[in-house]
Design a protein that fits this description.
Helix content is about 25%, strand content about 20%. By secondary structure, the chain is an alpha+beta fold. Strand 8 and strand 9 (about 160) form a beta hairpin.
């Protein structure tokens, strides 16, 4: 595989497997002189790590990150930053019974057809375990963006149960295990997901990521559009099956008048009357909040027996045991935040390179 890197000037390359000895990444393109410590990254990793509630996988990984290079006396040097996280609680034996069976909904069959082999231990390379390194890289990206840019994520729908946007409160996101901005819906989700978890099934979710304080001018026509790169970044996250910017698919049902984000001058600055564009016009940021949503499919590893085939070409059934997220979207929130940060940092550096 050669496609293990993303970004242009701020470039991230990840490596490692779910049940290998460690996972890691190399972050290249970070400007020199930025204050950076492991604690700056650990804050975000603690949001994603497993075992934090009964609603996520009970794999006990501390996800303690180590900075191996690119930082000297607390400052970035401008050279590649290498990050490492040791895998502490892999249980490969949980997968030995299904090593010759393809899990429906997983990448098992596709990887086997492409490479002629697969790492059956927890999914190997395509496991969501890899996203821990994206979150660590996102911590570096946030340092590049600076304190004026605020990136926040929330779960806005779990299965068929959506939040009431009239009750939206960012403060509530840190008060429940779902990063839900609606306290009433979060309380309902506890019972809803408990029933799903106890039945051995799973459910999908919709995540919303909002970046505030982003300067106007990031992104470029025609093939360097900010929204195109954000869409690709979110689609690269495990289990994501759809992405929308701003009004997204809802824009198809709007009239031209309703969809237009009208403008007025206020205190010498342009002020938009709405944000159906999600903060991006023509692939370039407008200075409004950048709003991205993505849909996450239900976790494919479930206890309910499903029809499948074996590596030897025989029809069979499979029930996946082990420790799995009943709703993978919960831990997808900090991953989405990280990918937003990485893309924005990359475009900020690209903008500076062209426009000063």
């Amino acid at each position: 595989m050669s496609d293990n890197s993303f970004g242009t000037l701020f470039r991230v390359t990840t490596w490692g497997e779910s049940h290998g000895p460690a996972i890691g990444c190399v972050v290249d393109g970070t400007p020199p002189g930025i204050s950076l410590a492991e604690s700056d990254l650990q804050t975000w990793l603690d949001k994603r790590k497993p075992g934090t509630s009964r609603f996520v996988t009970q794999r006990k990984e501390p996800d303690q990150v180590s900075i191996l290079s690119g930082v000297f006396e607390g400052k970035t040097t401008g050279t590649p930053i290498s990050l490492l996280i040791q895998n502490k609680d892999a249980r490969s034996k949980d997968y030995s019974a299904i090593k010759d069976k393809f899990r429906p909904g997983h990448a098992d069959y596709a990887y086997w057809k492409k490479y002629g082999l697969r790492d059956y231990r927890g999914g190997g390379r395509p496991s969501a375990r890899e996203t821990a390194m994206r979150v660590a890289a996102g911590g570096i990206a946030r340092k590049i963006l600076g304190g004026k840019v605020k990136i926040r994520g929330a779960m806005v729908q779990m299965g068929t149960e959506a939040i009431d946007r009239k009750r939206w409160s960012w403060a509530q996101c840190n008060k429940n295990p779902f990063w839900c901005p609606d306290a009433k819906t979060a309380a309902h989700w506890e019972e809803y997901l408990d029933d799903i978890r106890k039945s051995g099934s799973s459910v999908g979710a919709v995540i919303e990521i909002v970046a505030s304080g982003v300067p106007a001018g990031l992104g470029a026509p025609v093939y360097g559009k900010l929204d195109a790169d954000l869409s690709a970044a979110m689609m690269s996250i495990n289990a994501v099956k759809g992405v929308e910017i701003g009004a997204g698919f809802g824009a198809a049902s709007l009239s031209g008048e309703a969809n237009a984000d009208e403008m007025r001058m206020k205190n010498g600055e342009v002020e938009f009357q709405s944000n159906n564009a999600g903060g991006i016009l023509g692939g370039i940021s407008t200075g409004q909040d950048i709003v991205v949503r993505f849909a996450v499919k239900p976790t494919s590893s479930i206890l309910t027996p499903r029809d499948t085939v074996s590596r030897q070409g025989r029809n069979t059934t499979i029930a996946t045991k082990g420790r799995h997220d009943p709703c993978v979207g919960i831990r997808g929130v900090p991953v989405g935040e990280a990918m937003m940060a990485c893309v924005l940092a990359d475009h900020l550096l690209r903008h500076r390179g062209q426009c000063g």
